[in-house]
Every structure is written in C-alpha cells, then in structure tokens.
Amino acid sequence: MSRAGLGSRRASEELIRAGRVTVNGRVATLGDRADPETDRVEVNGEALEFEKRIYIMLNKPRGVLSSTEDEMDEGRPTVSGLVDVEGHLYPVGRLDMNSEGLILLTNDGRLAHRLTHPSFEHEKVYEVTVEGHPAEDVLQQWRRGLVLRGKRTIPALVEKLSTDSRTTRLRIIMREGRKRQIRRVGAQLGHPVQRLFRQQIGPLQIGDLPSGAWRHLSTEEVRALKKASNR
Fold first, then answer.
1. Which of 32, 35, 39, 96 is an active site residue?
2. 54-66: per-residue pLDDT in tens?
3. The CATH fold of domain 55-119+203-229
C-alpha cells in the first residue's frame, strides 16, 4: 500500500483495521498477503494503482560500470545506458568494470536486497580465465577458502575446464561476493584473472544472450527468483 502512495506502514495498518481495505473483494485483515501483479486491492472502494515491477536480465560487456550512474563523473558508460527503460532500476549482482556477464536490473527493492545481501548466500556461477596453470594444491586452497583482508572466504567449488599454453579456464561456484573477490583470490594465489564472466545468479541463467543485450525476465524466471529469495 505504501507503494501506491498511501503513506506509512502504520497508516496502512489503520486503514486495514478500519475495514477499509479489500483484496479480491474480501475485507483484508492484518497479516494478509496480496500480490499487486495478480490481486485486486481496493481502499474505500477504489482500486490501488501500483508501480509496475520490472525485472531485466543484462549481459554486461567489459568496460561498462555495473552501477546506474558514474559516481566519479568521468563520463564512463553505465548499465543504464544499455537498457531503454524508464524509471530507476537497482542493479543486482554488481561486476567490476572489466568483468562481464549476468546482471539483474529491477525496481523491486525488496527482491534486490534479498538477492544481494550476504546473509542470503545465493549461488553465483562464473567462468574465469587465469594466467598460468594452477596446481591442484593451489585449487584446493581456493576451494577451502583463504584469508583476504583479515577474513576467510567461504568455501567454493572450483573446477578446471581447460588449459592452453598460457592460461587456465575455471568454473567457479560461490555463495559470497566481496568486492573483486575472485580477482583478489587469483592474484593472491599467483594466477591473476584475465577474464571473468558470470553465467548465473541463483536460478537465473544468462544462456545465449549476446554481450550488451538485455531482455525482460519471463514470469517463470521471476517466480523462481522470488522463491529463491524467500528461503
């Protein structure tokens, strides 16, 4: 109800207690839930108009900021410049400027918070190319976790996919996302990251979406994200 401009949570509760709110024609009580996408909510017989929720998947290219504006005011390109949608969108799952791959953009602040807050530990999948050929004991260190700036990283799945004469391609699955964590771990282990591409956040997979392209999430994808964020 606050999304529809009816004031604070307390004011909304008073309206409900007074029996002035209905959901699909039934008088609402405190604790009832309603989905503005599918339910009809009325106050004093007038239907509420909610801001339409937007959920967008973007394949962020290298050289683009994952924020919606350049805080340094240096004219650097941002993800908002790639998505032709009106209104303020929150970026979910930020990537540093030189990293690529899946970012979610939404105006659903609650979902954005639950997908990004460390306490929810949503799984993220990356394809990472590092310099050199990490030995098995080095990969084991990465899997077990190591100390970065006084705090040990959470154990991660690290799988070797392929090698060439100078690099190794890894698949990394992790449940935390400290700033530049993968790059910092790779550098600390003596294998700096050359390329980092995120393929998945929770149940959301980037698939074959081209670099720089975006699309709205399907109803099924939104439902899966909400289910994952409520665990």
1. 96
2. 999 999 999 999 9
3. Alpha-Beta Plaits (3.30.70)
